[in-house]
Amino acid sequence: MTREKQIKNPAITISMVGLFLLLTGCQVQEPERLKAVPFTEVTFDDEFWTPRMKTNREVTIPYDFKKCEETGRIDNFARAGGLMEGKFEGIRFNDSDVFKVIEGAAYSLQIHPDSELEKYLDDLIAKIAAAQEEDGYLYTCRTIDPNNLPKDTGETRWSFLQSSHELYNVGHMYEAAVAHYQATGKRTLLDVAIKNADLIDRVFGPGKKRDVPGHEEIEIGLVKLYGVTGDEKYLALAKFFLDERGRANGRKVYGQYCQDHKPVTRQNRAVGHAVRAGYLYTGMADVAALVPDTGYTGALDRIWQDVVSRKLYITGGIGARSGGESFGEGYELPNKEAYCETCAAIANAMWNHRMSLLHADAKYIDVLERVIYNGFLSGISLSGDKFFYPNPLASDGKYQRSPWFGCACCPTNIVRFLPSLPGYAYAQNQEGLYVNLFVSGSAAIKMGTDTLRVTQQTRYPWEGHVKIMVEPSTRKAFTIGVRIPGWTQESPVPSDLYLYSDLGPKDWDQRKVTIKVNSQPVALVIVNGYVRIHRVWNVGDVIELNLPMPVRRVRSHWKVKANTWRIALQRGPVVYCFEGADNPQGVSDLILPPDATFRTEYRDDLLGGVVILTGQGKIRQSRENDKTALKDIEVTAIPYYAWAHRGKNEMAVWLKESDGE
After folding, report:
1. Rounded CA gap, 64 and 384, in Å?
2. How far is Cα 464 from Cα 291, in angstroms, rounded to an integer?
3. CA–CA separation, 263 vs 375, rounded Å?
4. 58 DSSP 8-state letter
């Protein structure tokens, strides 16, 4: 089979895959329970995400490319390719930033064709191809001047994988190459990626060099490369890098920071650098979906439980410590000092999406949704040209988004993740379709030889009414699984880390989820987070879902010392915060007594259009003799993602319920 034929027809027989994987110590499993509906088949058209994607396309993508130009990131490829003179500029992993922006641009091209952007990519990819050495090696800082290398690069190829990012960089290139090929049909970057991956396969593996990347990422890229080419060696190479972790096969293991302290199948807790960990778990889930008996799934289940039960912020953020950008111990979830790197939020979303496919369980989508509406979205300004690296849950007024960073992983990660969201909305298997995210728009989903068209209408996350129009190409019976968010079922997260501290609305109709087909009620039988509706579907059938959105008070597990006697507010999937711009009396001394109630109001003139919460709170006031008194005041809360857009302000997600400590 020629490579050209592989690309055109990536489907390969089980017998062919089985023969190769058995020879490499792997076995083939039955088809995965769910597979994602590709981003190429889904279009968003709603008031929440569509403007953000437009800003990403019109502002953030060109802005990030401009910054990559200004900082020498793009010129590094030209220098490595002999197209211009000069020294390497920047940090050893700067190549990866360019690849991530290319990936984001490719997703954007699929949504909104743009001949000028496509031409820019063509020219940029030509520079990348020129920078590639004859045998496939691509690492501009070494190619430009191997005798004058940046810090932590390693004297020779692959000699310092703990920190060099050689494999991390090209992992992002593989992801960009696949996205570019899927969006445009062009092989230019894909051929560069294949040539590089073939080199790495010749160097690494059983009986060859046995080492692992200090920063995981290539595993994800290799699985994507396997998916589009059908070349089995890329899947086997991804599995090799996973299986070598924690094993001293002629090398020094890199420890917990790199998740290299023990074999992945024996890991039980999320440790070390949170972004690296999230990428590792994503790669493990990718391979586990394709290769059985790896032991990965059991390890992932244990690690996931550790995170959602002890290490997850209410915003979906992960990574409590700035030192090492790492996880803390269990229940170590400080607010003002929270790191919650934007890249870690993205990694957490990617991991949970893969877990949902492995287990066909919506609890993972609950976490993903929490991330995208809160911990991820706070990382990008409404204008699209300022960014958060950490995302704390409290601020004394010093925080503001920055136009760029020396280590620019977050701005370039945002630009690729945001337009990829359509690929997270739906999943499918042989039974039918699963609706995961509620976003107005449409999808044309291939089901065997038929095509199912689905159209959603909703104002989610501000309103909980969702209308799903179903248009099968032929009248037939199949299942549509509609996700019922955990936040509607008295469970903010799928653990006891956060719980509602109120009893919910007294009026049952205000908290009851309902679902109908063609105006006829459907029994709310929830299995693994979905109501599965099996019937003969006809063109014109309509599913209506109603998700009440009362304001809920959330309390942490008692072991989270940072939140003792404190509560947070949530409405639907959106977590709220209190900011000084709306509460001029200050935020640090605000109190939300247990009997405080809140009104909701949609403000299209504020922060790009948000639902705000207003209610009665109290504030401490100093008196003589150092005594304090409480004063009743009106307080206002805004979505957490929207803070820090009106100058430097105090901010807090968690407020006390009383004046006591």
Report:
1. 10
2. 39
3. 30
4. I
| Look-up of token digits 């870690």 | 344
How far does the chain reach from its first CA to its final CA, in angstroms?
A: 71
| C-alpha span between 47 and 459 (Å, rounded) | 7
The pTM of the full predicted model, rounded to 2 decimals, is 0.94
Q: How far is CA 421 from the centre of its chain?
A: 9
Kind and range of the H or E element at 102?
A: helix 94-111
Quick check: helix, strand or coil at residue 607?
A: coil
Burial of 321 (0-12, 13-18, 19+ CB in 10 A): middle
Give the span between the Cα atoms of 40 and 53, in whole angstroms: 15
The CA-based dihedral angle spanning residues 584, 396, 342, 107, taken in that order and rounded to the nearest 10 degrees? 30
Q: Which two tokens stand for residue 537?
A: 């579907």
CA distance 150 to 137: 17
The pairing of strands 566-571 and 514-517 is: unpaired
pLDDT tens, position by position, 150-192: 999 999 999 999 999 999 999 999 999 999 999 999 999 999 9
Q: What's the rounded Cα separation, in Å, for the pair 101 and 93?
A: 14
3-state secondary structure of 570: strand
| HEC secondary structure over 123-170 | HHHHHHHHHCCCCCCCCHHHHHCCCCCCCCCCCCCCCCCCCCCHHHHH
| CA-based torsion, 302, 307, 311, 314: positive or negative | negative
E strand segments, 462-505:
465-472, 476-483, 498-500
Q: For 238-285, give the DSSP string.
A: HHHHHHHTT--SSS---BGGGTBSS-GGG--S--SBHHHHHHHHHHHH
Candidates 606, 526, 597; CA nearest to 361 is 526
Q: Identify the H or E element spanning 18.
A: helix 14-23
Rounded Cα distance between 150 and 234, Å, is 29
- State the Cα angle at 208 between 205 and 209, rounded to 5°: 85
Q: How far apart are CA 458 and CA 249, in angstroms?
A: 54
- Say how far apart CA 548 and CA 164 lie, in whole Å: 50
- Those residues of the chain that have pLDDT short of 50 are 1-32
Specify the 3-state DSSP secondary structure of 648.
coil
- Quick check: 80 and 74 in contact, CB under 8 A? no
Task: Give the tokens for residue 597.
Answer: 């109630």
CA angle 399, 410, 136 (to 5 degrees): 160
Percent helix, strand, coil in the chain, to 5, is: 40, 20, 40
Question: Looking up tokens 């910054």, which residue turns up?
Answer: 67
Pick the closest to residue 463 from 602, 575, 363 (CA basis). Answer: 602
pLDDT at residue 33, rounded to an integer: 81
Q: Of 648, 46, 71, 124, whose CA–CA distance to 402 is shortest?
A: 648
Q: What is the pLDDT of residue 29?
A: 39
Q: Nearest-CA neighbor of 429 among 493, 501, 357?
A: 357
Cite the active site residues. Answer: 325, 409
Closest CA to 491 of 307, 352, 360, 363: 363
